[in-house]
Each structure stands twice: as structure tokens, then as C-alpha cells.
Amino acid sequence: MNALKIKSLIIHSDKEVIRKLTHELLDLFHISVGVGESRWEIFSETEESSAVFVRTTLVIDDERFFKEETGFSNEKPSGAVHRLYKKHLYEILRERYGFPPALWGILHGVRPTKIVQRYFKDGLTEGEVFNRLTNGYYVSEEKANLLLEVARNEEKFCQDCDSKKVAVYIGIPFCLSKCFYCSFPSHILPGEKKLSEFMEVFKRDLSTAKDLIKKYNLKVESVYIGGGTPTALPDSLFAETMNLASVYFAGEDLKEFTLEAGRPDSMSENKYNVIFDSPVTRVSVNPQTMNERTLEVIGRKHTAKSITEMYNAFRKKENLEINMDLILGLPTETADDAENTIRQIIALNPDNITLHALARKKGSLLKTAMNENVHIELPTDDEAQKMAKISHKLIRDAGYKPYYLYRQGYMSGGLENIGFSKEGKESVYNVKIIEENQTIIGIGGAATTKIVDEAEKRIKATFHPKDLITYLRDIDLYIEKRDNLLKEVFKC
Predict the structure, then answer these.
(1) pLDDT in tens, 396-421
(2) How does pLDDT run across 146-155, given as a tens digit for each residue?
(3) CATH of domain 1-99
(4) Cα–Cα distance between 453 and 200 in angstroms, integer?
(5) CATH top-level class for 101-157?
(6) CATH number given to 160-478
């Protein structure tokens, strides 16, 4: 699809959310502002009585287009205004310029299954939810059915209402190298002096979190050690981290302990032994692709063979579940490349397979290169969608089912990130972090603490800094923020 370019855009609204929604649609249809010839003006009128009525007008030079509609009877007024405004613009732009329908329509948020779960709580049937998704949000039938399937599969994990059950996330903000597509706030592994400084601060962070859990009588249901790449730490520091996490958080309520083992070049025999002697129940092995040419392009310092060797090493431990992360839409790849990767992964027989769509995110080397007009050979949206179609079929045919899903901005093919699992091998942590129905206590670099406030029916959050210097310098300030947030909600 050729990008549309317009000279100017005037939005007649002082509401920031209206501007945000407008730019979401501009991004969806690859519309650039500041070049070209057309001048646009957008007007929105709203009336509220028993239901919300919205009229949206787009003036393109001397042409005037408008849509008007009333929201759903039980829809929140603000939600109805935002949905209808975006829906109207979507309709006008498609009719005026012949844009193809988007797979996810106007549904933009990170957690689309939350909308489905909310509709179920409101008493809507699956048929009614399907109609709202396809007619109210223009979600394709394929994605609407996928959302309903994921919502059904994750439902059993969302029924536990014990607010004292929590997850612990431990962030190790280091990697051995920077992947081309990565926008995570991780740092290349520093030298011994800086690592020693980090461990001193990090251990204080861990210890105070342990004290908070005891103070408020919380029950740790899951532990997730991510990053970065936790196994990038030197052997001795990795062993120390695993020991502290195990002693502090692996109690009688623990159901799941996940470690992002990530890449073969970060592993050693000592690290395997530490993991095998720990309470870890789930590891992630993340090849991203099994095509050697692509691994070089994206800056991965390992081979497909070493991924297989890493997988087989972990399989030596009984009752250890293995997840494997893959990315669709990587530079130079085709649907045939994606099929080659999926077939190799299925042959290994992991417990979980997570399919990510490449996201062209700010802060990545990929996005920087694109901004500087460096030619990057990326698959087209159509090719990325073909990759997804082939991958989904192969994974489903191998006996996996989708059980959690989330989206990001600027995703290849307008796709989604989706986790597939064998029966009974689903990750509790993955479901609950996406549905945001459990408190998560964050520790380490760039970690987020999210508290589910049952009394106020909302999420409260505090964030550790992404910048390593700030984390090391101001850790006591961020520990205090975390403590105050838990005190506010659990009122001890």
C-alpha cells in the first residue's frame, strides 16, 4: 500500500485523546502529514442522553464527508465517544481512499482480550461479543474468533479472586549484545566494577521487596526472572541472584518459577547446574528464528544448532517446561523461512511457543536505521500475514492452543503477539500480567510494580527507572515509592 501524504491537518478539538486517536488511524493507514497537497480538517460533535450520539466530519480540501451514530446502550459515555469517533474516521478513509480493512480494525490497545472479558462480565453472549467486535470495532472475523478462543482458554486463570496472591518480576537489565530489533531498556553487560555496584543495589531492592511481602502477608504465586537476559550475568553473580530469588520468594504458595534463559551464548555448564538445583519450573529459550542468514542480520551471536543443543540440555531436567519465542517479519525473511523455523521448533516439541510480530519500536537499531532512510529489507504486510497464517496452522496441527495475546504499536502485518501451549502447560504469569488481574511486585532495572486496588477497581503502578545510572543512584527513592503504593492499597 502506497503511503498517503497530506499537507496539513487541523483537528477541531482540545481533547488530547481525540488527537491521539486521530494519529493512531494515520499510522494505521500510513498517512504522513507535512508533505503533499491536501488539507484536512476534522470536526466532532457529541450529544449525550440515554445513549451517546457522535457526528464526525472530515473536510478534505473542498470535499466534506461525515458519519453519525449512536453508541451501545450500556457503553460508557467516554468509551462510546472515542470508539465512534475513530470508527467514523476509519469508515471515511476507507471509502474515500480504498484502503483495505485492517485485521484488527480500530482496536488499538495492548490487551484486547480485556474487552472480551468485560463484555462477558456484562452478560453478553459469545455471539453478541463477536458482533460488537466485528461491527463496532471492525475487527476481522478471523481475529474476533481468535480473541474469543483466547478469552475462553484463559478464563480459568482469572477466576481466583484472592487479592493477597501476587507475582514477583525480577528484571536483570543486561544483554551480551544488542539485537537489531530490540527496544527493551537493557544494557550491554558492563565490567566488574559496575556489576559489583549493580549487585549491591539490586540485593537491597530484592531484600526490601521480600520484607514488603512478609509485612502485608502476601502470597507469591509466580516468580518471573526476565530482562534483558538474566543468564548474561557472570556465573557467580547468576548463582547469587538465583539463590536469593529462591530463598526469598519460592514459598509454599508458589505455582510457577520462570527464567528467561534466552540465548545459547549466555549459558555455561555452571548455569545449567544452578538452574537444575533451583525451584525453576519454566525456562524460555528464544531463538527468534532458525534461519542462519537472519540470525546474522539481526545480531544474534548463536546458531540454530546451538539453540537445539540448549533445548536438549534443559530437557534433561524432569518437569521443566520450555517456552520458545519466535518473531515473524524479521528482515530478509519470507513465509518459507517462517515455515522452516516453525517446523524445526515443532520437531523439538516445546511446551509453549510464543509468536511475536516484529515491532518497529522507538529505541531499536531497526527504527533508527529506518528514520535515517537506510534500506532495510523487511517483509511486506501481506507476507507477514502469510507467515502468521502458515505458523498458526502448523502450531495448531501439532496440538497447541492459543491462551494469551497482546499487541504493540507498529507491528509487522498489523499482527499480534500470541502464546500457544500444550494442554496444562500454560504460564500463569503470562495470563495474569496481560489481564492485569493480579498484583505484580517489580524488582530490578526497568521493573514495574502494578497493584490491583480492589476497593477502587483500578490499577495503581510505580516504575523503576530504565536508565541504569538512575537506578543505581536513586534506588532508595524507588523502593519508597513501591512501599507507599503497597501501603496505600493493603493498608497495613
Answers:
(1) 999 999 999 999 888 999 999 999 99
(2) 999 999 999 8
(3) 3.40.50
(4) 32
(5) mainly alpha
(6) 3.80.30.20
